[in-house]
């Protein structure tokens, strides 16, 4: 069997994908790329990966590499994805696919012009209970979607110090707005149903706690192309550990939802024809033992598996570039809804080249360094674009003295 040889950009989130590849008989991670040589050597030694690059261009020029997993900083996925596609490599990109609509168009057109495989890496789509919900929906057991809910509530107090790279200015976790990370809550519902989002509206919390203005949680309503409504919830300042994903899919024939605590893979299914609730535990179709040690309840393993299958067989990626863009743009446009007071904002269908013309120069973002014309505030109450305070950064720095960012095995 031909093994798909993979290069990974990013040595933190990339850790989990390297772990997943060791389980799959048709995949092999042969190269890693990152800025920090010490970090590269630490991860390379852990997984026996010999080719370690500090130059992304050099890794792309490696003829042994078939595919690249883009797992660098979350606001910087489009450029390396396009570079890899143009270099003839298949690409799986971490979330989100893009930050701006202009970036979305660049990515779509690069995928189209190169003809190379691009898969969007929304791993929540491959949790065992999500796979079961998708099976039920695609089998027609639930009927047509009428309403759905998705929650990604991650308090993150205990791990916040492990998530921010202090060696760079304006790490993405220091400035993101509340709706930025929407793909974990909305993505699985789009993948389960295959429906396109057409409009979004959103609101955030307005809490003044200990002299600090808190904008979490974020709640979004998304209208789908068939008229159904999806409610999305993510982010929280309420103590809630461990974090849990929770989803509900309701259709004309029944509904299914998973348990919040303690086991998210326990699901409850109600079908109108049965007139009773059935409760059971969703299981992976294969690799059950191996998945137990893989990040995100094993979902990362099945994400990489789907990508490798697409590269090896030439089949369509399970989450293509258009669906990945749909999932990602919900966050950008939801924030515009918040800033405008919470009304509906249309989501463009960028599959249509004519529609792209209207949005090609839409660079609106909260990312520091964005031209002033396009810079949106990340604080809806103050109208400012803020980053973490010096005191907050100093607390993180002290915590990292106890567990070095270079040698941490935390995988997000």
Strand content: 15-25%
Strand order of the largest sheet: 16-15-14-13-7-12-11-8-17
Q: List the domain count as a whole number.
A: 2
Overall 3D geometry?
globular
Just give the CATH class of the largest domain. Alpha Beta
Query: What summary fits the major beta sheet?
Result: 9 strands, mixed
Give the number of helices.
12
Q: Could you say what the CATH architecture of the largest domain is?
A: 2-Layer Sandwich
Structure description:
By secondary structure, this protein is α/β, with parallel strands linked by helices. It has 2 domains: 4-123, NAD(P)-binding Rossmann-like Domain (Rossmann fold), CATH 3.40.50; 124-286 and 319-374, Dihydrodipicolinate Reductase, domain 2, CATH 3.30.360. Helix content is 32%, strand content 22%. It contains 12 helices and 17 strands. The strands form 3 sheets. It has a 9-stranded mixed beta sheet, covered by helices on one side. A hairpin with a 2-residue loop joins strand 9 (207-209) and strand 10. Helix 5 (101-114) packs antiparallel against helix 10 and helix 6 (128-138) packs parallel to helix 7. The longest helix has 19 residues, at 321-339. The chain starts with a strand and ends in a 10-residue tail after the last helix. The mean pLDDT is 93.
């Amino acid at each position: 069997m031909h093994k798909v040889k993979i290069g990974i950009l990013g040595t933190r989130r990339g850790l989990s994908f390297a772990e997943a590849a060791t389980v799959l008989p048709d995949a092999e991670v042969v190269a890693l790329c990152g800025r920090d040589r010490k970090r590269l050597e630490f991860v390379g030694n852990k997984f026996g990966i010999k080719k370690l690059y500090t130059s992304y261009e050099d890794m792309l020029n490696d003829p042994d590499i078939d595919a690249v997993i883009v797992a660098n900083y979350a606001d910087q996925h489009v450029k390396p994805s396009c570079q890899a596609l143009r270099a003839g490599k298949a690409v799986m990109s971490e979330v989100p696919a893009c930050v701006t609509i202009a970036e979305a168009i660049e990515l779509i057109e690069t995928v189209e012009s190169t003809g190379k495989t691009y898969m969007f890496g929304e791993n929540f789509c491959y949790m065992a209970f999500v796979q079961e919900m998708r099976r039920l929906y695609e089998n027609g057991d639930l009927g047509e979607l009428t309403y759905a809910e998705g929650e990604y509530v991650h308090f993150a107090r205990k791990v916040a110090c492990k998530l921010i790279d202090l060696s760079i200015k304006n790490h993405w976790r220091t400035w993101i707005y509340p709706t930025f990370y929407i793909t974990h809550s909305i993505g699985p519902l789009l993948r389960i149903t295959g429906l396109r989002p057409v409009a979004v509206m959103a609101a955030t919390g307005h809490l003044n706690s200990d002299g600090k203005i808190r904008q979490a949680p974020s709640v979004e309503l998304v209208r789908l192309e068939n008229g159904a409504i999806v409610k999305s919830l993510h982010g929280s300042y309420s103590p809630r550990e461990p974090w849990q994903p929770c989803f509900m899919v309701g259709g004309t024939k029944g509904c299914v939802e998973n348990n919040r605590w303690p086991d998210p893979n326990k699901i409850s299914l109600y079908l109108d024809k049965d007139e009773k609730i059935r409760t059971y535990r969703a299981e992976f179709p294969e690799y059950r033992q191996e998945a137990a040690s893989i990040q995100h309840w094993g979902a990362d393993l099945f994400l990489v598996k789907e990508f490798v299958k697409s590269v090896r067989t030439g089949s369509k990626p399970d989450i293509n570039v258009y669906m990945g863009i749909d999932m990602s743009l919900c966050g950008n446009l939801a924030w515009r809804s918040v800033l405008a007071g919470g009304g509906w904002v249309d989501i463009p269908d960028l599959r249509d080249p004519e529609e792209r013309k209207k949005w090609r120069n839409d660079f609106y973002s909260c990312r520091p360094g964005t031209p002033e014309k396009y810079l949106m505030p990340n604080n809806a109450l103050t109208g400012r674009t803020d980053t973490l305070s010096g005191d907050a950064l100093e607390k993180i720095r002290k915590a990292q003295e106890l567990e070095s960012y270079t040698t941490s095995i935390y995988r997000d």
